TrEMBL record:
Residue ranges occupied by any GTP cyclohydrolase I domain in the UniProt entry: 29-203
NCBIfam families: folE (TIGR00063), PRK09347.1-2 (NF006825), PRK09347.1-3 (NF006826)
Annotated protein name in UniProt: GTP cyclohydrolase 1
Reactions it catalyzes: GTP + H2O = 7,8-dihydroneopterin 3'-triphosphate + formate + H(+)
Annotated metabolic or biological route of this protein: Cofactor biosynthesis; 7,8-dihydroneopterin triphosphate biosynthesis; 7,8-dihydroneopterin triphosphate from GTP: step 1/1
Assembly behavior: Homopolymer.
């Protein structure tokens, strides 16, 4: 398990916008043109002429998570909670991601739970943390761990549980061609890992 600074160093990774190694938009559009020509079509024909710039804008959205810092998102917390210390669960958060092996869509939902230790975070922030990690090149196992680790590091709650269920288009539309399957991953930390009742309660609300 990753601990402390390692987690931050690994998971905050923000791509700075003025990174000199970062290709500019024209280079990305040219690369898309190359793929179109390689596929056997003519990037200059009417229907395709705007495609490279559209694809570039779409990719900009798909990978917008690199420019966002999940730690910053969770930083603002509230401590006037009347001592609330039960489970908080945000269920079925929809997300779209892309697999790092084929850049094919991963479409799924996340269940994010924690038991606070005095401080709580705005619930929309839990959904935003899911999005920050989804909008990067991913494997589901890593994304599940990143979400749980980050919440654990920043909020320092009594425990965190994350479950993700997702369909992988690299498996549905190519390769083994198995549509209608989904992959379930989970990461339990703190009391979610140590206490069977807590884990059961979470699994009960999540399924
Ligand atoms: Zn894949």
């Amino acid at each position: 398990m990753l601990k402390g600074q390692n987690v931050h160093a690994l998971e905050r990774v923000k791509v700075s916008q003025d990174d000199t190694n970062r290709p500019d938009r024209a280079e990305v559009e040219a690369a898309v043109q190359t793929i179109i020509r390689w596929a056997g079509d003519d990037p200059q024909r009417d229907g395709l002429i705007e495609t490279p710039s559209r694809v570039t804008r779409a990719f900009e959205e798909f990978f917008s998570g690199y420019a966002q810092d999940p730690v910053e998102i969770l930083q603002k917390t509230f401590d006037e909670t009347e001592g609330y210390d039960e489970m908080i669960v945000l269920r079925g958060i929809p997300f779209e991601s892309h697999c790092e092996h084929h850049m094919a869509p991963i479409i799924g939902r996340a269940w994010v739970a924690y038991i606070p230790n005095g401080r709580v975070v705005g619930i929309s922030k839990l959904a935003r943390v899911v999005d920050v990690f989804a909008k990067r090149l991913q494997i589901q196992e890593k994304m599940t761990a990143q979400i749980a680790n980050t919440i654990n590091e920043v909020l320092k709650p009594q425990g965190v549980g994350v479950i993700i269920k997702a369909a992988h288009h690299c498996m549905a539309t190519r390769g083994v061609h198995k549509a209608d399957t989904d992959l379930v991953t989970s990461r339990m930390l703190g009391c979610f890992r140590d206490n069977a009742l807590t884990r059961q309660e979470f699994l009960g609300v999540a399924v």
